[in-house]
Amino acid sequence: MANPPQVETVTSGADKAKLAVAVLLLIGALVAYYGLSKQGALAQWGALIALLAAGVATFFTSEHGKALIAYGRDSVREVKKVVWPTRKEAGQMTLYVFIFVVIMALFLWMTDKTLEWVLYDLILGWKR
Q1: Please, is 104 exposed, middle or buried when counting C-beta atoms within 10 Å of its C-beta (0-12, 13-18, 19+)?
Q2: 9: alpha, beta or left? (left if phi > 0; alpha if psi -120 to 50)
Q3: Half-sphere exposure of 112 (CA within 13 A, CB side)
């Protein structure tokens, strides 16, 4: 048996620094929002949005951010490969599921009533 390939994640010091800066910018956005409460809503929201945008931009320049972008692109590519059912097919499948649910409900109800009759009326003799 062959050993499975080992996946090694190589993270450079600069990449770790980018992630740390991104986290600090996000924390700074919250601190600035609450710290600027006396300067007015425009200053609060401006600082929050600017620092959040800077944090997100910093994250997306890191290797983890680039991997997230690549994952998103791959996901979109896979969704484009999906063959979606037509409206008629979707309606038919919905009808099949509804009919199956009704039949199963009737079957379970009949099973329940049969077991109730066998146990309570025949075996235990509890007549209602």
Answers
A1: exposed
A2: beta
A3: 6
Confidence of residue 123 (pLDDT cuts 50, 70, 90): confident
Q: How many helices (DSSP H) and strands (DSSP E) are in the chain?
A: 4, 0
Whole-model pTM: value is 0.57
What confidence tens digit (pLDDT) does each residue in 63-101 have?
Answer: 999 999 999 999 999 999 999 999 999 999 999 999 999
Name the phi and psi angles at 85, rounded to 5: -70, 155
Residues 30 and 71 sit within 8 Å (Cβ to Cβ): no
